[in-house]
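*** Backbone structure tokens ***
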Amino acid sequence: MKKILTVSLMCLAGSAFAQEELKIGAIVTLSGAGAAWGQAMLYATELAADDVNAKGGLDVGGKKYKVKVVPYDDKYQAGEAVTAANRLVFEDKVKYVIGPVGSAPRSRSRQSWTRTRS
């Protein structure tokens, strides 16, 4: 009985400290021309998220959030960047997005985000 009570209390304590997740989208080039840039960008983003999470999460307005990176490959193509942007905004419900790299993917995906704010 004592073991069951201890395990139950540990589960309750764990849920009391559970953090909400803050999803950050990453539109990165993981294939095609520019893949080296996108892979480095994704690695740096995930490394930063791991570092922040190891320190207890990201403090936003006095509340701590666990950072989760949600990456999509834009293949260094404008159309793929738009698809990734739409998935991040409408399906994954991310609050922030980094990327994409390159002028064509960036300008096309920005048009998509502008329409969602209207």
User: Anything to note?
Assistant: The radius of gyration is 18 Å. Residues 77 and 105 are 6 Å apart (CA to CA). Residues 2-16 have pLDDT under 50 and may be disordered. The beta strands are 20-28, 58-60, 63-73, 96-98.
